[in-house]
Write a structure and sequence with these properties.
Blueprint (H helix, E strand, L loop, with lengths): L8 H19 L6 H8 L3 H8 L2 H28 L5 H12 L4 H10 L7 H14 L12 H26 L6 H21 L1
C-alpha cells in the first residue's frame, strides 16, 4: 500500500487550484466542483471542504488565483512595453488570452449566472490593484485624467466580451477573429505614445 504524501495547507490549496484551473480550461466552469477537483488530485471531498468551505468558495479562490496570475503577467508586460522591450499587442494578447484560453471569461459568466457575484470581488480588487501599481499617480481617483484606469476598464471589458461572443460577432460583421485585439492594441499604442510624450 502506497501512502500519500502529507501536504501543507498551502500546498493542498495550490494543488487544488491548479486542478480547478485545468478543469475550467478543459471542460468549462460547470465542472469546477469539489467532487471533480478532489477526484483529480486524489484527496477527499472533506479535505477540500476544509480548505474552501463550499463549491462557491472554491470558485472564488480560483477567480482570485486567476486574477493574480493574469495581473502579475500584465504588469510585467506593461513595464516591458513602457521600457521599449515589449509591445502593446503583447499586453492586449495577455488580457484577451486570460479571459478566453485561460477561462476567466467563462468563469465570470458562470458565477454571474449561478448568483455567485461576490466571487467576482477578487478579480475586480486585483485589477484595481494592478491599475494602482501601474499608475500610482492616478491612485487618488478624484484627480487627473486617469488614463490607465480608462484603458484598463476598456481592455478588460473588450477581453471579456470577446471571450463570450467575439468569434460569432466578428464573423457576423465580416471582421477577422482578432479584430477586437487589434482595436485594443491601437488603443494601448496611442496611450503608450501619450505616456512617452509626457515623460519626454
Amino acid at each position: 500500500m502506497v501512502s500519500r504524501k502529507r501536504l501543507t495547507p498551502e500546498e493542498s490549496r495550490s494543488t487544488a487550484l491548479a486542478a480547478a484551473r485545468a478543469l475550467l480550461i478543459e471542460t468549462g466552469p460547470q465542472s469546477v466542483t469539489l467532487k471533480a477537483v478532489s477526484a483529480r488530485i486524489g484527496r477527499t471531498h472533506a479535505n477540500l471542504l476544509h480548505h474552501f468551505g463550499s463549491a462557491s468558495g472554491l470558485q472564488k479562490a480560483l477567480a482570485e488565483h486567476l486574477a493574480r496570475s493574469v495581473c502579475d503577467t500584465i504588469i510585467e508586460a506593461v513595464r516591458a512595453s513602457r521600457a521599449g522591450l515589449g509591445s502593446a499587442r503583447e499586453v492586449a494578447d495577455l488580457a484577451f488570452d486570460a479571459f478566453d484560453r485561460e477561462g476567466a471569461g467563462a468563469l465570470t459568466s458562470w458565477m454571474l449566472l449561478t448568483g455567485n457575484e461576490d466571487a467576482l470581488d477578487p478579480i475586480i480588487s486585483t485589477i484595481h490593484d494592478l491599475v494602482d501599481e501601474l499608475a500610482p499617480e492616478e491612485a487618488d481617483h478624484g484627480t487627473g485624467a486617469q488614463t490607465i484606469h480608462h484603458d484598463t476598464l476598456t481592455l478588460v471589458l473588450m477581453a471579456l466580451g470577446d471571450a463570450l461572443i467575439g468569434g460569432a460577432l466578428a464573423k457576423s460583421l465580416g471582421l477577422t477573429r482578432d479584430a477586437a485585439r487589434e482595436r485594443a492594441t491601437a488603443m494601448l499604442e496611442a496611450s503608450l505614445a501619450r505616456h512617452q510624450q509626457q515623460i519626454a
